[in-house]
Amino acid sequence: MTVRFLATIVLLQLMLGLGAARADLAGHGGPVNGLAISPDGAAVLTASFDYSVILWDLKSEQETHRLDGHDAAVNAVAFLPDGTKALSASDDEVVILWDLETGEELRRLSGHQGKIVDLAVSVEGRYVASASWDQTVRIWDLQAAETAEPLVLQHRAPVNAVAYLAQKGQVVTGAADSTIRVWDSLSGNLKQQMPAHDFGVSSIAVAGDGRHAVSASADETLRYWDLETGEEIAVLRGHQGAVLAAAISQDGRFAASGGTDGKLRVWRLDNEFYSPQDVAHKGVVWSLAFTPDAAVLISAGADSLARIWRLDENGKELRDGVQTAATGAGAPDYSDIPGAWQFRKCAICHSLTEDDEHKAGPSLHGVLGRRIGTHEGYSYSPALKDGDLVWNEETIDALFRLGPDVVTPGSKMPLQRIPKDEDRAELIEFLKRAAGYHNATNAPGEGKRDTDATAKPN
User: Fold this and answer.
1) What φ, ψ does residue 212 adopt, rounded to 5°?
2) With 347 labelled, which of 115, 267, 378, 404 sits at a CA distance of 20 to 30 A?
3) Which residues 6+ apart lie within 8 Å of 374 measured at CB?
4) Strand, helix or coil for residue 441
């Protein structure tokens, strides 16, 4: 069972309780899976389940560009050294190179046969390494012709993490088989292998010296390494659940960790190896990054936010210097409506308001009575455009009884079914109340019936 799947179980338990929490960078319509900070510390990239990447100005906390080009959840982002270009990687098995000054797509790197979950860029910016669940890391030469084949590093399990070792011509990788490996990034030769964790490695971060690193794992630990010697310097314990995110400051003074327990920990990497404080984070923490001066830590997670934490010289949060950004309006609370539990998975991709909130699927506001593929502003799969199917109680029931592969073949909707008749009926009743009808005047009864928030006609 993979680390990200374990975390998804926790995520689904939290979805209905996730309102808009206090945060600094709020703009995504789904969990924020990855983030990166520019080399000068002035900009932030966030990658989301909503298929998009957002470029932020860190000082103003404002969105600069929204980058839309992927066909599935985006898991990782990385800046090139000059800060004018960046890369993103997705479940759609593609890496995209972006021009951050114009927001335009420059190039696509294709070849993986599984979702891509991490990215790393070499110091000079010529090479990019992508880690995938197809059990490989691929190293791409951005100066080579687009037809050039990447160097492939073969693993025996899905690869969750990759990082470059500064000025060393090497990459370090972490995989679901619990190992950490160091490779020559030009020849592909394996330099070192360490049996690192008791369970799969979910994240690796390397300090500016290219030697010291931290790794996170489903075994509930963060581990501190000397990659030159292969020595495990310390095992940092305290999380109660899989640790999914790890970061280390460039100067190597601090590390940070987060995971399924919703705790964010900042660790002092001195002789005592302690966390001066734990911060309660709303929901699963997916990604972490320090600014170059380690004065700011940014976290991303299941609450659809990237949160900014300002730190003092000891790694403690400056409480009067953080959490000052606009909070946004909370989402309507439908938790008391029967069927809300059935809707929890739908809520990951679909909103119930007219605004689609940049989610991965179209808004379900007014879905009952709406023809498939017609919600304005949403980019549908070609198979759904101009379709004849109309969402009503019968078609929604069929969608979850037979599956989207039968009812909406060719759609982007994940394969899922609800086998019990009573559960489907409960979900449909929820949609009547919480989503509404496409044309209220045509709704049966009092015209108050609310449309399908569950049919995921993506």
Assistant:
1) -95, 140
2) 115
3) none
4) helix
Query: Coil, strand or helix: which one is 430?
Result: helix
Coil, strand or helix at 46: strand
Categorize the per-residue pLDDT at 382 as very low, low, confident or very high, splitting at 50, 70 and 90. Answer: confident
Quote the pTM value: 0.72
CA angle 341, 19, 217 (to 5 degrees): 80
- Contact assessment for residue 304 and residue 30, using Cβ atoms and an 8 Å cutoff: yes
Distance of CA 264 to the CA centre of its chain: 17
The closest of 45, 43, 49 to 70, measured between CA atoms, is: 49
pLDDT score, position 276 = 62
Place of tokens 């021009």: 99
**Do residues 326 and 20 touch, judged by C-beta distance below 8 A?**
no
For 105-136, b/e burial (b = at least 16 CB within 10 A) is: eeeebebbeebbbbbbbbeeeebbbbbbbbbb
pLDDT over threshold 50, residue 19: no
Q: How far apart are CA 422 and CA 427, in angstroms?
A: 9
pLDDT of residue 403: 78
For residues 252 and 379, what is the distance between their CA atoms, to the nearest angstrom?
A: 44
Residue 290 in this model has a pLDDT that exceeds 90: yes
Report the helix count and the strand count for the chain, using DSSP H and E.
6, 28
Collapsing DSSP states into helix, strand and coil, what is residue 16? helix
Cα 435 from Cα 367, distance rounded (Å):
7
Which sign does the torsion angle of CA 152, 154, 158, 161 carry? negative
Average pLDDT over residues 298-304: 91
336 vs 129, higher pLDDT: 129
Q: For the chain, what's the residue count?
A: 458
Q: Round to whole Å and give the CA distance between 432 and 247.
A: 45
Q: CB atoms < 10 A from the CB of 402, how many?
A: 11
Q: Which of 5-19, 142-156, 422-436 has the lowest mean pLDDT?
A: 5-19
Q: Cα–Cα distance between 249 and 11 in angstroms, integer? A: 28
Task: Choose among 168, 187, 239, 249: nearest CA to 214.
Answer: 249
Amino acid 332: pLDDT: 56
Tokens at 117, concatenated: 């979950």
* Cα–Cα nearest to 396, from 321, 343, 333: 343
Gap between the Cα atoms of 222 and 201, Å rounded? 10
Confidence of residue 329 (pLDDT cuts 50, 70, 90): very low
